[in-house]
Amino acid sequence: MYSNYTTGTRVTMGDLFPALFFSLLLATAGLYVGQSVPPALFLPLMIVEIIMIVAAMFIRRRRVVGYGFLFTFSFISGITLFPAIRDYVSHIGAPIVLQAFAVTVIAYGGAALYAGITKADFSFLGGFLFIGLIALLGMGIVSFFFPFSRTADWVYTLLGVFIFLGYTLYDFSRVVRYGVSREEVPMVVLSLYLNFVNLFLFILRLFGLNLKRD
User: Fold this and answer.
1) Max Cα distance, the chain (Å)
2) Does the global pTM surpass 0.85?
3) How many CA atoms lie within 13 A of 173 on its CB side?
4) What DSSP assignment string belongs to 16-74?
5) How many CB atoms lie within 10 A of CB 200?
6) Regions in the chain scoring below 50 on pLDDT
7) Membrane-spanning regions, if any (predicted)?
8) Consecutive H or E run containing 12
9) Is the dihedral of CA 65, 70, 71, 76 positive or negative?
10) Number of domains within the chain
């Protein structure tokens, strides 16, 4: 999601957290607003969200993605998360959803802390993670036409958890080792935000599968 870490004034991991926190705060506000959004609008908003992600990858090649883009995306993604969160609350209960969120915060924060303390280089994960992400997207598309078996559902869910936990380690380790230009902070935060949201959704799915097993 970001091109390099070598141009402009460089900032460190600690400088990214305020923007990441505000992005998550706006997503929470969007989640609240989602309660009042007509169901017919969710699909168009999801399409807008996808277009924004694709646009971000092209925009960064020519000019910098700004904070306005980042925060607008965060708010819209919060709205589009509402149907999924509502369904999980309905099926597994609000306390379990909160537990899944707490586990996500701990796992995500632990990965960030580990990258910061050890300064380990996880750049070797890039290729494996990309291949895993393509496989994950492929499995997701197939599931629309052919419902998963229980085993395939577990494989898909665990793969998602490991991929986005891996991306969290990968992204934070690059920031720690090389820094990031101040101009590219919004783009990097967008990547970190997507890691958190996707990790949360797959951990939620994992909790749901575990309850079904019981």
Assistant:
1) 53
2) yes
3) 19
4) HHHHHHHHHHHHHHHHHHGGGS-GGGHHHHHHHHHHHHHHHHHHHHHS---HHHHHHHH
5) 23
6) 1-8
7) 12-34, 40-59, 64-84, 96-117, 124-148, 154-173, 185-207
8) none
9) positive
10) 1
